[in-house]
Structure formats: C-alpha cells, structure tokens
Amino acid sequence: AKPARLRGCSSILLHFQDVCRGHLLFDCGEGTCGQLIRLYGIERATKIVSELSGVWISHHHLDHHGGLIRLIEMRRDSQLRSRLVIWGPKKVGDSLFEYFGDLGENEYDFYHCSQVHQGRNDLDKVKYMRSVPVHHCYDSFAVAVQIKVKNNGSEKEAWIIYSGDTRPCRRMIQSFSSLINLRKSDYCILVHEATYDDSMQELAIRNKHSTIGEALQVAKDIGADFALLTHFSQRYPRCVDDTKDAEVELPYILASDFLSFPIHNPTGALKHWQALAKLCVNTGPV
Q: What SS3 class is residue 55?
C-alpha cells in the first residue's frame, strides 16, 4: 500500500533483545530506515540495522522493497555490521546488482525466495524456514520461520508466518499447517495482509489482495494462535473499521505504524489496541 500521513510502507522487524546479531526484517518499503529512527532514535536504530542478519522481500512491488538500498547504505556507517542475507524475487536481486554492481558482494548475499535454506545459519535464533509461492504478482512468496524465544529465563519456540501480499492461498495454508503440526512449537503468529474490509471482496479478488475476514479465516485454517493484520488500503487513512466483519474467536490486531509487542505475549497488546482503535477508527478525512 502507498505511504500516507499516518501510515508507511510495509516493513516488520523481528528484533531479538538477547543477541548481537540475527535480527530479521520482513519487507523493507520506502521510509523503513526513517521509521526505525523515529521509533528508536538514530544511535539505536543504526545499531539495530548493523546487527540485521536477514531481510525477506516477499515480492517486487516497490512498497515492499523501496527502502532496501537505503538500509544497505545505512549499514556502511557501522564497522561492526554482521553479514546480511537477503531473500527476494529475481527482479529485486537484479535491481540491487544494477545499483551496487560487484561492490554488492561486500555488502550482502542474495538468494531467491525459494532458497531459504541458503544463509539461514547466519540467523542465531532461527531454527527452520520454509517459503511457498502465493497468489499475487509473479514471483510472490510467503515464508514461515521457526524461532527460539526467551521468556522469564526459559526458552520457547514459536512460528512466525508472513504472507506478503496475496489472495487467500490454499497452497500456503496446506504447506504451513502441515509444517507447524510436524515441527511443534509453543505458539504460532500469522502476519497476513488485509488490504480491504469485507464489503470490498470483489475489489480484493480483482487486485489479488485479501479482506479482513479472509485473512482471519486463513489464520484459523493454518492453526495460528494469533493474527496480526497489515497492508491496509489508503482509503482507510486512520484505522479500518472491522466491526462489521466476520466474527472469529481467534485473537487478532489490526497493525499500525510503530506497533511493538513481545512475541511470547502478543495478546498483551490487545487491550492497548482495542482502546486505540476506538479513538482512531476512520471517521472522515485526515
């Protein structure tokens, strides 16, 4: 989705507090570095960017990788940066090579989205990854990442599934539901796009996106414990009014810029979001 006054492009940081490298970024839309600086301040943001070990780009649309070159350049400011692995579609790899040329070999290793087994060992907290093609533009992929999470001194495991942009995808549901049943974890969080409310399903089909109700149904079918919905159309400048959408028992949040919560307790953010949503639901022009 295009950036607006109250919402930036797609980018989700998986930040591990207890490691000096290994953080993972899902997509890197235009303005990602600026948003990190606004959230953390310049010093901490630079440190986090230098400690990144992996960036996942779900597809070649610019709102999902327009900030990638700036992120790579920002890492040059740190002499302690870890090696960066980038997974993405072929067009993104070609554009990076066109910009950096052979100098890119000193900055990053690039692999196609289908090659998630490559470079995974550089991510300290990642145990397993799987990608699957989804129904959006050519060369679009979703990814499932099994990670280790510390909570009160004990270590747990969690699945983080990121859909990228897609229609509800049967192949993704079948692949990831069987995966999380095969490789058991303590819980599973699905991050799924929900570009439209449920009244706009025809437009969602035409543009190969999902509605809120469809995204929640995907989460239920996969077997997720929690859903984080993202990538809202700019026709909702503040917050999507989901009160008329299908009711589900699965806990979920409609994401907003700078939303942060501990992976081991995503439901703890529900109360804060519910209070915020009452204030921010779209009621007219910004």
A: strand
